[in-house]
Each structure stands twice: as structure tokens, then as C-alpha cells.
Amino acid sequence: MPIQSRITFDPNQLGGRPCVRGMRIRVKDVLELLAAGASEDEILEDYPYLERDDIRACLAFAAAEADHPILRTAS
After folding, report:
1. Of 8, 21, 30, 71, which one is least surrounded by beta carbons within 10 A?
2. Total domains in the fold of the chain
3. Residue at 37 is within a domain
4. How many whole angstroms separate alpha carbon 43 and alpha carbon 54?
5. Which among 16, 13, 15, 22 has a CA at the least distance from the CA of 54?
6. Residue 8 pairs with which residues in a beta bridge?
7. Which pLDDT score is estimated for 75?
8. Total Cβ atoms within 10 A of residue 21
9. Higher per-residue confidence, 75 vs 39
10. Please, what is the average pLDDT of the chain?
11. Domain limits for position 61
12. Which residues of the chain form beta strands (DSSP E)?
């Protein structure tokens, strides 16, 4: 399943923040768990409605969001 179908945006849900498959779990929530040291298996155990590919889609989304050019104005 491509990332576009796993990471969703709904202006009427959680302020339009990116969520996992339309559920009320934000990409940020998953990333914070990973950053705190939780393993994929621990996350899946605590959130049984998530799938391993959801976690990977969150990581891919974060990587894509972090890759943007910085534009400078000409002096």
C-alpha cells in the first residue's frame, strides 16, 4: 500500500494534521514513540490497529517532509 493511502489529511480531524489511515493517531505520535526508543513491535503491541507498514509510512513521510530546499534571495 503506497504512502499516500496510509498517511491521510482531514481538516475536520485533529486539525488537519497528518494521520495514519484516517484514524485518530497522528504521524507525530508514531514518530515520537520511535524517537523515545520504542520498537516497531512495542508500538504494534500497544496499538493493535496499526500495521507495520503504517509505521514505515510515517518514517517515509517524515523523511520526505524533511527534504526541502532552502531558498536564498539574491544579494
Report:
1. 71
2. 1
3. yes
4. 11
5. 22
6. 19
7. 67
8. 16
9. 39
10. 92
11. 3-66
12. 7-8, 19-20
